[in-house]
Structures are given as structure tokens and as C-alpha cells.
Amino acid sequence: MPTIIFDQSATVFSADYHPERPARLTTTEAHLRDQHPDWAWIVPRLASEEEVLKVHHPKHLERLQQPVDFDADTPYYPRIEEHALRAAGAAIGSVDLALRGDQGFSLMRPPGHHATSTRAMGFCYLNSIAIAAHHALEAGCQRVAIWDFDAHHGNGTEDIVFGNNRIRFASIHQHPCYPGTGIASRGNVLNWPIPPRSPAERHTSAVQQALDQLIEFRPDIVLVSAGFDAYVKDPLTEMTLEQEDFASFGRWLKETGLPGAPILEGGYSNDLPILIDAFLTAWSD
Ligand SMILES: [Zn+2]
User: Fold this and answer.
1) Which of 21, 118, 235, 239 has its CA 20 to 30 A from that of 229?
2) What CATH number is attached to the domain comprising 62?
3) 159: CA distance to ligand 1 center in Å?
4) How much distance in Å is there from the Cα of 200 to the middle of ligand 1?
């Protein structure tokens, strides 16, 4: 049974008409509590400054406190630094659960995989998955894999982990699409750009190949940037995945036999709750 890492305070910030909205979490919380009354829920801690500074520049933390929008997609919200620290803390919590043989999913916002070491962008402020990957290394893992099946390229994660020979990162994403990067693989970073409206089989086979190449790295843990915006009805992308495909991703993660630490990244359709449920149910079955 998975443990859901969640805090109500992740639902208090919003901007009018922004797709990255509190309802993503509130509807998922209601759905999962209703469908799985036996699943455990825990509240995350904040990531520490020391943990964040392993991947972000000190000036970036200062910038998060300045009440000025970061770009057209990425507003300043009151206390956004604290909210981002809490999402990063939840990703760390997912790693901690995994390393003691449990299964935890971070159901938090804001997402993180577009945040670079020095820049908030694409609805992301701190790179939670990269912070959690460094936490896993500190906790004794020799090698860490990051599997990013969000429909957008995890450019921030690539920026941060590129050249780190203890981390292998794989991203499968729509191209062309925001942010426009992730066209080629390099070193420890593996990219699978997928054209818009590709058949779901082509997309899922790339997601599977990505996981296979991560497993060849013999990681001690698989962190997952679990975005659900490659769904056919997602309003931000033009991909074709169905609910059952996210169940396949969960089943494949389980079949690796490795500790897994998934965190929510994107996913903007009203069906987000059933997509997350499909993934988690298959993973923990
Ligand atoms: Zn996305």
C-alpha cells in the first residue's frame, strides 16, 4: 500500500486561470481517500537550506523571496519559497520511504522538473526531484536513476544532473513543445523526443526503453518525475496516452523490483485523479 505525502498548505496558492491549480490536488485527495481508505497519509517536512543548496545557487533562493513574477507562466506567490521547500521535502520523504522498503508518492505542488539551478520557470521553483536524488546519494545510494515521463522535457533536471556519474536521467517528452529542449541524449542524460499526436504505442514503448536503460545503470533507487500531462485529454499537450498506459508505467516500476520514489509533476486534465490512481494502484498491487 502506498503512503501519500500531502499537505493542505500546497493548495493555498493560485492565480486566476492558471492550469497549475489547487484543484489538481484537492480532487485527487478526495478521490484517493474515497477509493483507497486503507492508504496512509503523511505530512512532509520542509527541505533544508543545506539540501536545496546541493542543487540550487544561493542567489536563486534569494530570488524566490522577491515578489516579482518569474516569467509569464510562473507567477510569484506569497510564501512561494516555503511552498517549494515543502514540495521538495515531500520528494525527500518519498525517497526515505523507498529506502526503508515502503512506497510513498508525493502529491504536492508546485512541480519542479523545469527549475534549473538558477531559474524558476514552467510553473516550477525548486527542482524537487534533483534535490531528492542528492538526498538519496547522501543516504547511501551509490547510483540513482530518474525516470521522467511528464509530457514536457525535464530541462531543469537535465541542467542540474548533467555530468554527475552517480545519476542517470531519462526524459520522454513531446517535441516540439515547451520548453523546446531535450532533442538529443548526452552523457548521463537520455532524451526521447516524441512528435505530437504519435500513436500511444510509440510513446509507451519509448517510456519502457527509457526505464530499461535506467535499470542497466544498476541504480539503488528509481526516482520518478510522474507527470500525467501526456494524457490524451490534457489541455496543454497533444499526446495520446490513456489511463491504462499510466497503469502500465506503475506496473513496470513495480517489476523492476527496485525501491521507487515517484513525485507528481504535471497533469492538467480533470481526469488527473484517476490517472494518478491507475499508476499508484498498479505500482503497489
Ligand atoms: Zn508537463
Assistant:
1) 118
2) 3.40.800.20
3) 16
4) 17
